[in-house]
Amino acid sequence: MSLALFFGLCILISSIFIRFGILLSGYFGVLDHPGGHKQHDTSTPFVGGFGVIAVVLSTLYLGATYFPELSQRPMQAIAIGAVVLFVTGFADDIWHLNFKTRFVIQALVAVSMVFLGGVELVSLGELIPGVDIDLGALGIPFTIFATIGLINALNMIDGIDGLSGSLSFISLGFAALVALLAQDNTYLVFIIAVMGGVSGFLYFNLRYPSNGRARVFLGDNGSMLLGFVFAWILIALSQGEHRAMTPVTALWIFGVPLLDTVSVMLRRIWVGKSPFHADRNHLHHLFLRAGFRVSDTVWIVAFLQLTLGAIGVIGLHLALPESLMFGLFIVVFCLYFYVIARPWRFVPNLRRLNIALGLPSVHARGVFVGYFKTEQSQEVLDALIEELGQRYDYRLSLHQIERKLPNSANIYALIELEGSMDEISVGEIRRLMLQIKAHFASSVSLQVRLFMHRSKDNDRRLENNKEGDRVENCIRDSDRRAAQGSSAFYTTVTDGENKESSVVQV
Questions:
Q1: For the chain, what percent of residues have pLDDT higher than 90?
Q2: What is the pLDDT of residues 27-72, one digit of tens each?
Q3: What pLDDT was estimated at residue 479?
Q4: For the chain, which residues make up each domain, given as ranges?
Q5: CA 322 to CA 358: how far, in whole Å?
Q6: Which residues, in sequence order, are bridge partners of residue 155?
Q7: Which pLDDT band, with edges at 50, 70 and 90, does 165 fall under?
Q8: Quick check: 172 and 180 in contact, CB under 8 A?
Q9: CA-to-CA dists, residue 133 to 123, 136, 318, angstroms
Q10: What is the percent of the chain where pLDDT is above 70?
Q11: End-to-end distance of the chain based on CA atoms, in angstroms?
Q12: 447-452 β-sheet, strand order
């Protein structure tokens, strides 16, 4: 069997078992309900791990059948650890286990990795020029620490639809490339299988045109399992006399989850909180706060992971000194931590980036058109109503500002789309803005831009609170308009059912 066919078969296996998990989720109560720090607004099954564990166990049989060169010893040991962590994660999804219990089980699985699979972190490589750091008796403690860290790093990055799966797929792809170049067929086949399992999960979890939101989440059953798989393959490929890569290459391959977890935990300690205290200061949260859509955020963070992994593999291929690659990684970490530690400074820059890239903003609620003279009001109004047509439920209003502007152009229009805003809606708003801008390009000189909703999540006004952290004040667009002394003198609103308009002269 070719690897491509094997990959496709694993996607099919993963998809079937995730579908089966969806059917069982209601019976077992494995549902993530909205509220708190959650980004979703509907109950969603925690069954992403079903697809991955099905693929891991299937590899035992399929590998022995179709890839006779596949060594069974590591596969059997991996399967044992994977089942234990899947069951533990599944129990955690249902009963919310104490973190100490989870850590103990993760540590025991790490110990089994050493004694059953023969996978141990014995060397950190030449992190200092001319000095190869061998761990000796500290090898097992370091292995346990690294395994627990990788398991929980993937769990912590799992915050929005498609992110953890996309990062996992990219990292697994680089690990597969390393195994291929080193001609390590055992791990190459296994990694390809897990990539198929993750692909099946992404079909249900990633947002795309026909899938507006995630239908399943990875859950602790999936994130703990995948984190363990990463710990195993990254340590196995970076250790031993015939290692496939250097230990520092593993840092680059698993870059974003590692950088994000360490940076967020250090920031929590810095502001006097527990490193395990949940917050919304992960990198993907900052993108969302700046107005990026979930899908755009996933693509950008995935591109960052792709860049980091490429740097690591290119450095390995060019045989660059490990100390140099480690030094570069530390520089990247410092930059990443600076961003995470000062989100109130970084979010405005991200908002500007969103505008510069021309991406739809989730804070968009309509379109601003201004400024024009009073005698141009009817012309502009007729043009806007024509552009809007019968496609939207909207509120169209004309406002006059009291302060004088050049050429007496003191009228502006606001188009506010009615109803709840989702990623499709904000895309429609941006398309509407571009259409209006094109309409007036050759006739009237007007500013046409998105009308943004302001809230404490996307418009920060800084002050210190008693805990030393930053707080945010809420300033809405209506407040800003009022502060400028503006008043509405015309409003038309469409009815959502019959599209009839009502006009109010104010």
A1: 52
A2: 877 887 665 555 545 778 989 999 999 999 999 888 778 887 777 7
A3: 40
A4: 3-356, 364-505
A5: 40
A6: none
A7: very high
A8: no
A9: 6, 9, 22
A10: 86
A11: 74
A12: 447-452, 364-372, 411-417, 394-401, 486-494, 501-505
One-letter amino acid of 451: F
pLDDT of residue 179 exceeding 90, the answer is: yes
Whole-number Å distance between alpha carbons of 472 and 61 = 56
The overall average pLDDT reported for the chain is 85
Instruction: Quote the CA–CA distance of 454 and 210 in Å, as a whole number.
Output: 30
Q: How far is CA 180 from CA 3, 63, 221, in A?
A: 12, 17, 29
* Vertex 79: Cα angle to 77 and 81 (nearest 5): 75
d(CA 459, CA 461): 7
CB-hemisphere CA count at 13 Å for 264?
21
Segment holding 284, helix H or strand E: helix 283-289
Closest CA to 44 of 200, 162, 136, 194: 162
Q: How far is CA 173 from CA 180, 306, 316, 459, in A?
A: 10, 10, 15, 38
Please state, as a whole number, how many other Cβ atoms lie within 10 Å of the Cβ of residue 431: 11
Tell me the HSE value of 449 on the side-chain side, using a 13 A CA sphere: 10
Those residues whose C-beta lies under 8 Å from the C-beta of residue 497, and which sit 6 or more positions away, are none
Instruction: List the one residue out of 487, 417, 488 whose CA is nearest residue 453.
Output: 417
For residue 391, name the pLDDT band (cuts at 50, 70, 90). Answer: low
| Site of tokens 């590692």 | 258
| Count of helix runs (H) and strand runs (E) in the chain | 17, 10
Q: Classify domain 364-505 by CATH architecture.
A: 2-Layer Sandwich (3.30)
* Residue 398 near residue 411 (C-beta atoms within 8 A): yes
Handedness of CA 193, 195, 200, 201 (dihedral sign): positive
Cα dihedral 300→301→306→309 (10° resolution)? 150
Three-state DSSP class for residue 450: strand
Helix (H, G, I), strand (E, B) or coil at 401: strand
* Alpha-helix residue ranges (DSSP H) falling in 357-506: 377-388, 423-440, 477-483
Nearest to 384 by CA among 420, 445, 450, 433: 433
Q: CB of 81 within 8 A of CB of 228?
A: yes
Alpha helices (H) along 139-162: 139-157
Tokens for 214, please give them.
Answer: 């995630």
Q: Nearest Cα to 201, choosing from 180, 225, 185? A: 225
- What average pLDDT score do residues 468-484 get? 39
Rounded mean pLDDT, 98-119: 94
Tokens of 343: 């989100």
CB 50 within 8 A of CB 90: no
**Cα 100 to Cα 96, 105, 146, distances in angstroms:** 12, 9, 16
Distance CA 384, CA 361 (A): 21
Q: Which of 50, 326, 57, 309 lies closest to 166 in space, CA to CA?
A: 309
Amino acid symbol at 459:
D
Helix (H) or strand (E) holding 164: helix 163-181
